[in-house]
């Protein structure tokens, strides 16, 4: 039998989009002679409908829309994920359709309730062995713990999380011997290196339960924060039969394979491991797709970025350029432009361009005024030019190094680049408040306030630039800064999308070195030679992030031990001492205290960050992976006892 999985790029309750991709997948499958097709979990509504799953109307609408799919299933068996509501309870199901008929609804038995998943809030887990009936306009179908048969192949279901439970409780253990095929429609979030886990899960299940296992994941940045890699896996008796390229820019990624169910296949003696994933590359692909989907689904015209020439903002700029490069590589220029929704079919008019005078000669003017004609931009650079506007907003505390870094990078990407200073606005506000208070504000008495006003004064201008162009304003915070609140609220946190807030600063720096050498972004040599600095204090002070805080790798380690491993402060310190050769225990104690104090004080800031992507195995976004009280004891007793 020819069986297939199709990864779909869905949008919560965007019926037109979701039915269009479902129909396209079915048509592609039929054209390829596929006999059984698995579509992702909840693909009809989208996985991320959140509390709408608790309404009566959304599941009812989904059931009504399922009827539209029936005529498309002539000659093929298709599994379509949707919520079904019975007696005020919503179930996460996969409907099986064939030849225009609905055969039944298999229901999810184990709900995902960790990390970024909160399913028990929306759904009720289905009890093993039970069945009920769904009614719609005079027709009835079975719902629950069901098996099906198609052309003499018996099949049953695990729906995503069902497969992540122990072998002696998951549905597969009851399907063993009763079915030839287990179908798994999934919405399994992307995280770096996670594909290996999923591969092991699927291939081992096919061996342990002596079956063929067909797995199809959701694709793309569905609803803002979570990215799906669109993985399709088919395994039989411990042998991998099919695995696709992940993180496609396509709306539908269909993969099929032939399985001879009439002949048994010897069980694999061992599972062949996947090559170790390249996390830099994975992150690049995931972020590119996440940005592209966010841009088009938010119906925006591009991105605006306050580009300091430092690591975080350079990462974000390269992220947009990579979105263009990878998207064009896969879709082609015309399809990339069409799908982005940013081009209206008109030829791209290049705005500003490469070249431009040095920082000292150029204040408050667009980068190209009076400059020599810029070199012609490549096709990708022209697209970047249309989609990315950057501005360097210097102060007296900014260095030439960061300006050069920003300008050269923006020019090399093709981005539109502006340069202006904000000293006048800073002086205006400082003067106003000094006057009101009747005393001059000074660095020795008002350090933080004077730092923050600079970061804040950068916000209105860059927001204005974003607004006039109907663009998304990128904010550049990384996870390490978010943990300790090393940012100015309504200043450098201003923005509507925060692409790298899920990634720690040490990783950001490593990734930039990789991007310079492996992706060929030579202009990154400036930033790769710089020490991260906020440049908010007078230059003579030689401010660096790590002097203000602690070494970033250490900050990252404390954060992981505290909130991924969930250790108590004393255990975190003990662990650090144990794993740091020649450790200065007193210094480590200071850092641990500083981390927890800043962490607790700054929960309110994390609550106010712009939406960010889940990219690593955890993040600190309270609306995603990590919940923490805004007001708390702040680990006072625990830190005092250290
Ligand atoms: N629980 C709570 N709920 C609500 N608000 C709370 C609060 N606790 C304090 N606050 C308020 O928070 C305000 C202070 O927060 P905020 O104004 O953001 O500033 P703050 O956290 O005091 O200082 C910002 C820090 O970030 C660093 N920074 C800033 C900008 C850029 C960079 C960079 O790396 O480039 C670094 C800067 O060096 C400084 O260490 C105060 O007005 C305080 O009342
Ligand atoms: N001179 C500047 N021009 C434009 N934007 C700036 C400037 N200084 C700071 N910003 C904005 O504030 C953000 C926060 O600064 P931060 O120092 O944390 O990041 P970075 O400068 O990109 O990287 P690094 O911390 O490695 O120097 C920057 O990413 C940028 O968006
Ligand atoms: N949708 C789901 O059930 C996802 C849960 C599963 N543990 C995963 O991370 O892939």
From TrEMBL:
A GO BP entry is: NAD+ biosynthetic process
**What is catalysed by this protein?**
deamido-NAD(+) + L-glutamine + ATP + H2O = L-glutamate + AMP + diphosphate + NAD(+) + H(+)
Residue spans making up a coiled coil are none
Q: What is its EC number?
A: 6.3.5.1
Q: Does the keyword NAD apply?
A: yes
Q: Where is this region: Disordered?
A: 353-376
Q: Which family does it belong to?
A: In the C-terminal section; belongs to the NAD synthetase family. Belongs to the NAD synthetase family.
Record-given protein name: Glutamine-dependent NAD(+) synthetase
**Organism expressing this protein natively:** Hymenobacter nivis
């Amino acid at each position: 039998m020819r069986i297939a999985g199709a990864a779909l790029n869905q949008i919560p309750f965007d019926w037109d989009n979701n039915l269009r991709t479902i129909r396209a997948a079915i048509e592609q499958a039929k054209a390829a002679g596929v006999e059984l097709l698995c579509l992702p979990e909840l693909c009809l509504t989208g996985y991320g409908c959140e509390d709408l799953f608790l309404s009566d109307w959304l599941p009812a609408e989904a059931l009504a829309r399922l009827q539209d799919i029936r005529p498309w299933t002539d000659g093929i068996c298709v599994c379509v994920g949707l919520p079904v509501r019975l007696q005020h309870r919503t179930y996460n199901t996969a409907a099986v359709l064939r030849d225009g008929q609905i055969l039944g609804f298999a229901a999810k038995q184990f709900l995902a309730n960790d990390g970024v998943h909160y399913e028990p809030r929306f759904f009720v887990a289905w009890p093993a062995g039970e069945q009920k009936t769904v009614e719609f306009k005079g027709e009835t179908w079975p719902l629950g713990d069901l098996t099906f048969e198609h052309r003499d192949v018996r099949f049953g279901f695990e729906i995503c999380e069902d497969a992540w439970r122990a072998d002696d409780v998951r549905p597969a253990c009851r399907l063993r011997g009763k079915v030839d095929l287990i179908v798994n429609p999934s919405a399994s979030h992307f995280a770096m290196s996670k594909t290996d886990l999923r591969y092991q899960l699927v291939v081992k299940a096919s061996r342990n339960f002596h079956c063929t296992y067909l797995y199809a994941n959701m694709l793309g940045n569905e609803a803002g924060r979570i990215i799906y890699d669109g993985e399709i896996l088919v395994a039989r008796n411990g042998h991998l039969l099919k695995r696709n390229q992940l993180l496609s820019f396509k709306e539908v990624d269909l993969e099929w394979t032939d399985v001879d169910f009439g002949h048994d296949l010897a069980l694999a003696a061992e599972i062949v491991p996947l090559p170790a994933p390249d996390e830099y590359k994975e992150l690049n692909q995931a972020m590119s797709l996440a940005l592209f989907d966010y841009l088009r689904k938010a119906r925006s015209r591009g991105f605006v970025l306050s580009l300091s020439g430092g690591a975080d903002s350079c990462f974000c700029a390269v992220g947009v350029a990579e979105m263009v490069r990878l998207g064009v590589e896969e879709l082609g220029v015309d399809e990339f432009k069409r799908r982005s929704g940013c081009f209206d079919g008109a030829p791209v008019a290049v705005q500003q361009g490469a070249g431009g005078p040095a920082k000292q000669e150029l204040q408050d003017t667009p980068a190209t005024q009076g400059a020599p004609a810029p070199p012609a931009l490549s096709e990708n650079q022209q697209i970047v030019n249309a989609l990315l506007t950057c501005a360097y907003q210097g102060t007296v505390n900014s260095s030439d190094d960061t300006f050069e870094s920003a300008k050269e990078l923006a020019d090399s990407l093709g981005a539109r680049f502006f340069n202006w200073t904000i000293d006048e606005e800073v002086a205006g506000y400082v003067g106003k408040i000094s006057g009101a208070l009747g005393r001059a504000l000074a660095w020795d008495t008002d350090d933080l306030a004077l730092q923050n006003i600079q970061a804040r004064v950068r916000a209105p201008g860059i927001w204005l630039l974003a607004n006039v162009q109907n663009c998304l304003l990128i904010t550049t915070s990384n996870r390490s800064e978010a943990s300790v609140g090393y940012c100015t609220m309504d200043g450098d946190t201003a923005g509507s999308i925060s692409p790298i807030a899920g990634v720690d600063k040490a990783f950001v720096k490593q990734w930039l070195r990789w991007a310079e050498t492996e992706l060929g972004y030579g202009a990154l040599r400036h930033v790769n030679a710089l020490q991260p600095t906020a440049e908010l204090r007078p230059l003579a002070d030689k401010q660096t992030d790590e002097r203000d805080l602690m070494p970033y790798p250490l900050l990252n380690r404390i954060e992981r031990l505290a909130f991924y491993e969930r250790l108590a402060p004393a255990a975190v310190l003990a662990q650090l001492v144990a794993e740091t050769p020649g450790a200065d225990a007193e210094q480590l104690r200071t850092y641990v205290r500083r981390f927890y104090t800043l962490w607790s004080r700054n929960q309110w800031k994390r609550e106010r960050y712009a939406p960010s992507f889940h990219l690593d195995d955890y993040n600190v976004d309270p609306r995603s992976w990590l919940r923490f009280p805004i007001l708390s004891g702040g680990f006072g007793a625990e830190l005092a006892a250290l």
